[in-house]
Design a protein that fits this description.
The protein is α+β, with helices and mostly antiparallel strands and 188 residues long. The protein has 7 helices and 4 strands; from the N terminus they run αββααβααβαα.
Length: 188
């Protein structure tokens, strides 16, 4: 899978960039169930929210309805409700969200050649996103500095123009004419 396709699947939850288990399973070419089994067998490798965490119902509710409607619906279903016929739309457990560290740890759990190659692209996608965020922050900082400097210059220009026009008003006040005034209103 291409890096850009992977980047589109990276989302932010709990102020961390993560990939959901079902997206990772698709990227690695395995079933989500098998990926979760491998993780559960090696759960000690994923201790701590900086590697992986399971989404809460509230977090799922906050995610985009179009992308995660099936997750939201399944978590609220009772056992007596008929399951959806669409493949992958019925889940028993809330998804795992893997951080960059968690994805790196997955490479030690999934030992296939495809998983290793795919993992490289996933790591590159995370690095590219981190670089983009850093570049954006730097550009934003430079823009703030430029705006502050420009704003100062505009203030100075405004002040000079204000003083100029005030001076111009004083100079253009109607002056009394010097000379004799005739009765018909003409000066001589």
């Amino acid at each position: 899978m291409e890096i850009l396709q992977i980047q589109r699947r990276i989302i932010v939850i709990r102020n961390q960039r993560v990939l959901l288990d079902r997206d990772l399973a698709e990227i690695y070419g395995v079933e989500t169930k098998r990926l979760k089994e491998a993780v559960r067998r090696n759960i000690e490798r994923f201790e701590g929210d900086d590697f992986m965490f399971q989404l809460t119902k509230n977090e799922i509710d906050k995610l985009s309805r179009s992308q995660f409607a099936s997750l939201n619906n399944e978590l609220s279903k009772s056992q007596t409700v008929t399951l959806n016929s669409r493949r992958g739309s019925n889940i028993k457990y809330a998804p795992f969200a893997f951080t960059e560290l968690g994805v790196a740890m997955l490479s030690s759990v999934l030992n296939s050649e495809v998983a290793i190659k795919t993992n490289r692209n996933i790591m590159r996608a995370f690095v590219m996103m981190r670089q983009f965020v850093q570049d954006y922050a730097e550009i934003n900082h430079k823009l703030d500095d430029f705006m502050a400097a420009t704003n100062m210059r505009f203030s100075e220009v405004y002040q000079v123009l204000t003083e100029f026009f005030e001076q111009k008003k004083i100079e253009e006040k109607p002056r009394r004419r010097v000379g004799f005034v005739q009765k018909n209103g003409q000066n001589s």
